[in-house]
Amino acid sequence: MAGDNPESLMALTTVFCLKNLRKTMCYQGFRDKLCLRSDIFLPSEICDKLVNTYMELVHTDSNFEPEESFLQLFSDPRSTRLTRVQLREDFVRDRDLEAIRKQDLIELHLTYCNSLSSRSLKTLTCFRETLVSLCLFGCRRIFYRKGGAPLACNEDSEEEEEESPAARQALETDFNFQGFNRLRLLNLGGLPDEVDAEMLLKPLKSLTSLDLSNVQLPGTAFLTQWKDRLASLVLYNVDLSEELVSTVVELVNLSIIFIYAHFRHFDISRESRRTAKFKMTRKILTAFVQRLVNLVSLDISGQIMLDNSSVTLFFSFSTEPCKSSIYPLQELKRPLQFLGLYDTTLCNVTHIPAYKVTGSKNEDQVLNAIEAYTEFRPELAHRAINQLFDIARIQHCGQLLRALQLVIAALKCHKYDKSIQVTGSAALFYLTNTDYRSDQSVRLRREVIQVVLNGMEQYQEVTVQRNCCLTLCNFSIPEELEFQYSRVNQLLLKILEPARQDESIQRIAVHLCNALVCQVDNHHKEAVGKMGFVKTMLNLIQKKLQDRTCDQVMEFSWSALWNITDETPDNCQMFLNCRGMSLFLECLQEFTDKQELHRNMLGLLGNVAEVKALRPQLLTPQFITVFSNLLDSKADGIEVSYNACGVLSHIMFDGPDVWSMEEPRRDTVMDKMWDAIQSWDVTSRRNINYRSFEPILRLLPQSIAPVSQHWATWALFNLVSVYPSKYCPLLIKEGGVSLLETVLELDSSQPETKDMARKVMEQCETFKEDPMDTNHGPEVNHGQRG
């Protein structure tokens, strides 16, 4: 199955160690400080994996608890070696970088780390002799002093507090890259306008890759200082100008004599054509292509072509440059590995001389765009994911595994980007529906569930919540959600807080809650009950009563209560403590003709009646009269009458001594129960699903309430005769046959009860002899109990 490759042992071990630091690598030191064990030495391969996985867990696993001084574990290079570190988002502080300043880092990637101040620039100088690759993308505040303080590095610095942007307005002017002699790859995307890029970069003599995305450049002549070395230049969202074009052309002309011919990646793309001020001509593009002779990657997304650069050619599809529909690219010596044409008209032409193209013409171009732009250009990734959403919704996604992996990666990378979360969660809904399910592995579907829950946690906004809830509905519940059972229930209950008014989300969330507590172990139900599940459902019911509305939310809420109280006395007690019986009576009175509602309510009360300690609270004239009257109900076939009789059967089982009321009389109620049972069709198909017969079986070997015994026997006969393959094995497994023999032996058992008990035993015997007998028709569960 696609995407079902197991995690590597290294990955599994790394996650386990990070989640169990005190049991594996560390101990609790002085003042609860986390310390590395003295007998441990970790090479760079392991240390790099630990730090980078730690950062991923912090951003994607809500159950993972970050350690305040985690990076301090890597402060001593004698016991730990770091070489390649990737840190992102505001979680990273100045003290974290200071903790690892003695390490000989080769690569340091800091992305969107807006909690860093100019103190971290000082820390960067500690790595100047070893650093080869540095990324400061989106780290705007690192170029400002905190509160106007001078550039300083203090390893014992106090805890930093959140500060307003106004406190960071003192630009750091004392830093440049002097001494970073080994630095080859540099990403300064998003560099503040106040920073002089030319002066900052002047000391760097050996750069081979430079990214100045979103940087406003007053002049571009300084780029010629790397004419002999530069292999990659990214100028995304940098305003093109005659000067910049001339500079690049000059670079190319000069490089013909030297070694600039190895220039391989050139990016002058833009976020949108709407913001483009400079129009690219066929002549300019041709000049670039002619001079960059070893070009393998070119991105001109979002650029406006002033004149027509495409030609119409009539032959079969080809990537050969000489057959290119884009005229300037006919000058290429070989097809490009990558060509960015997103938000240009050129992506629609037939013959494009590149193996991987970004654009919006087809699914492949859209997926290429998501892949290329997710990390540093979420604004483009968002638009591409939106186009993927349309493909999955209207057409058919031909590269499902790749599409899912790319959307998951985007949602993980941009957990705090609302636009990505909205479009990504919407795309996941269509990519995980029934049409695609057979192509998805367990591991892949679990990844989808985790990113969906991340979105629900991060955003209370209506659209994200609705998309996430709808996506969860595509999974088998509760089975596929059980690995995140507690978390998903907590999130759904939060959605259902009274302040929320969005009806569609409320309806979906209640449906999910109901499904999650159906067919799960009792310990799951008890845990969810302690989260406030019962009270939340009753609050919803009370709100609907106030509105005099009986809709799906009302019915699902009672159904969920029916499920969560099954064989869980604590939840039954919560129902009674939270005015559940009062709401039952009010609903019964307000919605007299709602059959499904009545069935769900009576099913729930059947669960309460099974708890001996709680039955006295049901034994009041008011409640007994209501249950007795419902014996005559024809709502939902026999279900309401059946459930009412079940409640009374358990109450009668406690004997006449507990019946302290004068009206209604016990004998009168029992007579009505006999009449009701005799009126039911024993071949009735049922809207109910038993996981265990134990509550019914306990009513068999007794003489204190023959009508209760008869109700239990009738229930068993109905179920084993209508659904033999499901309920005969269950009855045999739980020892029901021997208890039925007891019924036959008791003098108090009524003749019709004994007759029915024999029929149940015969049915089970027949089933044991021929378990494949299908004479009784298909087995269909129309409803649920527990």
From TrEMBL:
The keyword tRNA-binding does not apply. GO terms for cellular component: Cul2-RING ubiquitin ligase complex. Gene3D superfamilies: Leucine-rich Repeat Variant, Ribonuclease Inhibitor. This is Protein zer-1 homolog. PANTHER family: PROTEIN ZER-1 HOMOLOG, PTHR12904. Residues 199-344 form the Zer-1-like leucine-rich repeats region domain. The lineage of its organism: Eukaryota, Metazoa, Chordata, Craniata, Vertebrata. Keywords: Leucine-rich repeat, Repeat, Ubl conjugation pathway. Belongs to the zyg-11 family. It comes from the Eukaryota. Residues 765-786 are annotated as: Disordered. SUPFAM superfamilies: ARM repeat, RNI-like. Residues 411-765 form the Protein zer-1 homolog-like C-terminal domain. The gene is zer1.
